[in-house]
């Protein structure tokens, strides 16, 4: 049965991480989902990216908001950077085929570099692709990640991620789970709302000691109403993307967890006048 979807809601393919794309498409159709975010690795897992893209494009009324790639660069290894650029270029091609205008990245591991050294390395590594994406009419957005995941990123606060993105000339994918407890969050959002391309929404149960272990919105301790209110008052006009992943979601089952998450966030957005 379809969900009464708020028009600013989208669903990340990460929320059904263990399913093949055929089951994703069935769920999206049954729930009436119109906006989705895709994962490059799930398209690749299909065995034929072009075939997976064709399946998505053949689904009536479906729009791809962004394509998440993850990290492409070994920041301490300049000899790898051109291969990393080529991977991002391939993802830009996939995004173009999907009619998608945003590719989400993480920075890559610092691997012994200081924060400043890692930022310098990423700036040099990614600059050619930033220019190529802009010429294509596509944007790149960097995500703020969990501080336990230094294997994929050194940008672990929203404030640092915004500073980095402004330096690189790209946008930001704000992951609420990794930012809600930051000092001065409202100020960071107000000063950088022009950079925010996507806001990923989920929940967190205080006392959780592993990652990823996200909860369905409403089941945890993130003050989602307050955080979403900060975003709306700052003038954020982009999508709110449900991205739930981890053992709680696996235990409940993807379909009921996704339904509850969409309903809860949609109600919050309506109550807050989004």
Could you characterize the architecture of this molecule?
The chain has 274 residues and is of the alpha/beta class. The chain has a single domain (9-271), classed as Alpha-Beta Barrel (TIM Barrel), CATH 3.20.20. The protein is built from ten helices and eight strands. The chain has helices spanning 21-31, 40-45, 49-57, 81-98, 115-136, 158-168, 185-192, 224-234, 247-252, 254-271, and strands at residues 9-12, 35-39, 63-70, 102-105, 139-143, 171-175, 196-201, 240-242. It has an eight-stranded parallel beta barrel, surrounded by four helices. Strand 6, helix 7 (185-192) and strand 7 (196-201) form a beta-alpha-beta unit. Helix 7 packs parallel to helix 8 (224-234). It is globular.
CATH C-level class is Alpha Beta
Number of DSSP helical runs: 10
Using only C-alpha atoms, the radius of gyration works out to 18 Å
SS elements, strand count:
8
Strand proportion, as a percent range, falls in: 5-15%
What structural category arises from helix and sheet content? alpha/beta
Distance between the termini: 24 Å
Looking across the biggest beta sheet, what order are the strands in?
1-2-3-4-5-6-7-8
Portion of residues within helices = 40-55%
For the record, the count of structural domains works out to 1
Outline type: globular
Secondary-structure element string: EHEHHEHEHEHEHEHEHH
Within CATH, the superfamily carries the name Divalent-metal-dependent TIM barrel enzymes
State the CATH architecture.
Answer: Alpha-Beta Barrel
Query: Low-confidence parts, pLDDT < 50 over ≥5 residues?
Result: none
How is the biggest beta sheet arranged?
8 strands, parallel, barrel
For this structure, the CATH topology is: TIM Barrel
Mean pLDDT across every amino acid position: 97
């Amino acid at each position: 049965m379809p969900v009464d979807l708020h028009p600013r809601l989208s669903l990340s393919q990460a929320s059904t991480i263990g399913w093949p794309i055929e089951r994703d498409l069935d769920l999206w159709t049954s729930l009436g989902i119109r906006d989705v975010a895709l994962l490059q690795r799930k398209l690749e897992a299909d065995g034929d990216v072009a075939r997976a893209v064709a399946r998505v494009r053949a689904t009536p009324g479906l729009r791809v908001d962004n394509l998440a790639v993850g990290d492409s660069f070994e920041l301490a290894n300049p000899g790898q950077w051109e291969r990393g650029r080529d991977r991002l270029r391939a993802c830009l091609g996939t995004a173009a085929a999907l009619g998608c205008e945003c590719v989400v990245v993480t920075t890559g591991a610092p691997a012994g570099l200081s924060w400043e050294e890692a930022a310098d390395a990423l700036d040099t590594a990614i600059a050619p692709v930033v220019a190529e994406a802009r010429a294509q009419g596509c944007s790149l957005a960097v995500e703020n990640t969990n501080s336990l995941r230094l294997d994929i990123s050194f940008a672990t606060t929203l404030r640092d991620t915004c500073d980095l993105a402004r330096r690189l000339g790209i946008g930001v994918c704000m992951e609420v789970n990794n930012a809600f407890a930051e000092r001065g969050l409202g100020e960071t959002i107000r000063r950088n709302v022009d950079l925010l391309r996507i806001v990923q929404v989920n929940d967190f149960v205080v006392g959780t000691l592993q990652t990823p272990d996200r909860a369905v919105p409403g089941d945890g301790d993130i003050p989602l109403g307050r955080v979403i209110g900060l975003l709306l008052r700052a003038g954020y006009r982009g999508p709110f993307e449900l991205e739930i992943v981890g053992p709680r979601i696996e235990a409940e089952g993807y379909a009921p967890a996704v339904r509850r998450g969409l309903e809860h966030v949609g109600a919050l957005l309506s109550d807050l006048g989004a």
